């Protein structure tokens, strides 16, 4: 593993006076998946549940790759691993629910991420929309979407979702995923 100094970054010539000094980036060229997963995990995210009715049964998976994309037209995206066995089922659904999980929903996140935990929705409060999206009760926000486009991206697919209906409960604080751990916002 090689390291490089961050000369010219924080504290370098011309840097604004309020940047901290003495914290040159510790860089590494190690891009193997485990190392990369650790660095990607330094980016804190929310946690969502992707879910829909498929053949009359709720099908779902946890996804932290949710990103709002466009206001007009209304688009959001998620990334689905090529190894996911749930995504190929979900993508068949006419409508797909995205629930932004609340700070108390770590258990739901774990359950919906566990392969072999069947029935995956056991004990979870879920609701279906008329069009067949599945939304989790107790979440902080909801999107009722359809798949607009899928773009191959390495070992994942970037899935662009068109938003049709939304909901929000501003009193629900979000669940946060960071460095492989669930966290809640302080304050
Ligand atoms: C916090 C968290 C975030 C996740 N985010 C994603 C994601 O964005 N995309 C993805 O494909 N899988 C993600 N997963 C993995 C899936 O939720 C799930 O483990 C996997 O899809 C289950 O396997 P299956 O698809 O074969 O049922 C995440 C898991 C956890 C615990």
From TrEMBL:
Top-level taxon of the source organism: Bacteria
Sorted UniProt keywords: Oxidoreductase
Domain Flavin reductase like: 40-184
Family annotation (Pfam families): Flavin_Reduct (PF01613)
GO molecular function: oxidoreductase activity
Entry's EC annotation: 1.-.-.-
Sequence intervals crossing the membrane: none
UniProt xrefs under InterPro entries: Flavin_Rdtase-like_dom, NADH-dep_flavin_reductase, Split_barrel_FMN-bd
PANTHER family hit by this protein: FLAVIN REDUCTASE, FLAVIN-DEPENDENT MONOOXYGENASE, REDUCTASE SUBUNIT HSAB
Similarity field: Belongs to the non-flavoprotein flavin reductase family.
Protein's recorded name: Flavin reductase family protein
């Amino acid at each position: 593993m090689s390291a490089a100094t961050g000369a010219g970054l924080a504290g370098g010539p011309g840097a604004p006076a309020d940047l901290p000094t003495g914290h040159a980036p510790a860089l590494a060229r190690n891009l193997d998946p485990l190392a990369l997963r650790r660095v990607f995990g330094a980016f804190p995210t929310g946690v969502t549940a992707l879910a829909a009715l498929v053949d009359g049964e709720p099908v779902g998976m946890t996804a932290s790759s949710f990103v709002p994309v466009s206001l007009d037209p209304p688009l959001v995206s998620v990334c689905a691993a090529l190894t996911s066995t749930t995504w190929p089922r979900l993508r068949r659904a006419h409508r797909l629910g995205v629930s932004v999980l609340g700070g108390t929903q770590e258990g739901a996140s774990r359950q919906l991420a566990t392969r072999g935990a069947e029935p995956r929705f056991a004990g979870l409060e879920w609701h279906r929309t008329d069009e067949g999206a599945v939304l989790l009760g107790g979440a902080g926000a909801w999107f009722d979407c359809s798949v607009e486009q899928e773009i191959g991206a390495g070992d994942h697919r970037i899935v662009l979702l068109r938003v049709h209906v939304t909901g929000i409960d501003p009193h629900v604080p979000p669940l946060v995923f960071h460095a492989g751990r669930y966290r809640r916002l302080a304050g």
